[in-house]
Amino acid sequence: MIEAELPALLKAATGSTFPNVSRDQLSELPVRLGPGVSLPAVSSFLGAIRKKIDLNRQMAATLEEMARALFKSWFVDFNPVHAKAEGRDPGLPADIAALFPDSFDDEGLPMGWTSGTPESFVEINPTTRINRAAEASYIDMAALPTRGPGITSIVSRPVGSGSKFKNGDTLLARITPCLENGKTALVDRLADEEVAWGSTEFIVMRPRERVPAPLPYLIARDAAFRAHVIASMSGTSGRQRAPAEAVGRWSIAVPTDAVISAWGNAVLPMFDRIKATSLEAEKLTELRDTLLPKLLAGELRLPDAEVVIAAA
After folding, report:
1. Nearest-CA neighbor of 175 among 146, 151, 201, 200?
2. pLDDT at 3 over 50
3. Taking burial as the number of CB atoms within 10 A of a residue's CB, which of 9, 58, 71, 105 is the most buried?
4. Which domain holds residue 300?
5. What is the CATH number of the domain that holds 223?
6. Which DSSP helix (H) or strand (E) runs through 181?
7. Is 206 inside a domain boundary?
8. Distance between CA atoms of 140 and 79, rounded to whole angstroms?
9. pLDDT in tens, 141-182
10. What separation in angstroms does the CA of 162 have from each of 130, 171, 213, 235, 242?
11. For residue 2, what pLDDT is reported?
């Protein structure tokens, strides 16, 4: 942007409390290009980066949908058990199919399974020690996504009161409208054994020893579970909260440890790939924003920028 254009742009801004500039106004601003810079070439370069970022995000979303579908098939709809009970092929490798019974008990659960709650799989708001005399990684409510597991930002702050968590924990927003909007995350960006802290408005769901980390996260993303937790909210309008105890009041089928382990073996690689593609998309976004001003100013040649992106 050219400094001479700023006064006119600010004068054209609209809005009483927070003046803002429209996209159309921005699009009309002249852009000063460095010598030898081709705007169409730069635009094509940016388009290729955007396409790669979009593909990564789509891949992450598809992988999560696959994991959610497998969670629902095995633990909610009991599809492998229904198939075996009806004499059909459950469509699973023989060693995994053998883990499922071929009948149901009087409660409608697969034979050998039990009725439980999410606390069969997780600890709710577990006690976690952290050094209060130091700074530590901090995650606020704004960093929780409404879709997908990835936390969007981590900062460092002096430790205060708030939730404490570590890698593998699921964070579930408990306050309106964050809970209704879907703010939930699977913590996976911390160092090994690192303890972080965050908003007091998080419910921390820590997987028990035998439980793969994605399982509590997918429980927290389940539509029926979320409806149950939302229905438990109380408080004044605009400040309603769900109690942590609501998590333990939801009914869920509890399979055998062997089934849980087999499910984890299938799903954990999906979440590893989700993390990898998400990190790559974030890195590409950061590089794009860093390289663009240099490209427009002619400080960086397009072939050199392409090398940087290819190495990302």
Report:
1. 201
2. no
3. 71
4. 40-113+255-312
5. 3.90.220.20
6. helix 178-181
7. yes
8. 39
9. 999 999 999 998 999 999 998 999 999 999 999 999 999 999
10. 11, 12, 22, 20, 16
11. 41
Contact present, 179 and 199 (Cβ < 8 Å): no
- Residue 35 in any domain: the answer is no
Q: Give yes or no: residues 66 and 96 share one domain.
A: yes
Instruction: Determine phi and psi for 174, rounding to 5 degrees.
Output: -115, 0
DSSP label of 14:
B
Q: Give residue for tokens 């992450």.
A: 60
Per the domain annotation, does 46 fall within a domain? Answer: yes
Average pLDDT, the chain: 89
What total number of domains does the chain contain?
Answer: 2
In the chain, % of residues over pLDDT 70: 90
Sequence-distant (6+) residues with CB within 8 A of 171 are: 139, 144, 163, 165, 184, 185, 187, 198, 202, 203, 204, 205
Helix (H, G, I), strand (E, B), or coil: what is residue 190? coil
Percentage of the chain with pLDDT > 90? 70
Q: Is the peptide bond before 126 cis (omega within 30 degrees of 0)?
A: no
Q: Which two tokens stand for residue 204?
A: 């921390």
Instruction: Report d(CA 196, CA 185) in Å as an integer.
Output: 14
Bridge-based pairing of strands 196-198 and 163-165 is: antiparallel
DSSP string, 43-107: HHHHHHHHHHHHHHHHHHHHHHHHHHHHHIIIIIS-HHHHHHHTT---SS-HHHHTTS-SSB-TT
Beta strands in the chain (DSSP E): 114-116, 122-124, 135-139, 155-158, 163-165, 170-173, 184-186, 196-198, 202-207, 252-254
Whole-number Å distance between alpha carbons of 3 and 303: 29
Distance CA 304, CA 19 (A): 39
Token readout for 168 is 């593998």
Which of 253, 282, 299 is where one domain is finished? Answer: 253
Q: Which residues pair with 301 in a beta bridge?
A: none
Plot region of 51 (φ>0 → left; ψ -120 to 50 → alpha; else → beta): alpha
User: 18 — alpha (psi -120 to 50), left (phi > 0) or beta?
Assistant: beta
- Cα–Cα dist 70/76, whole Å: 10
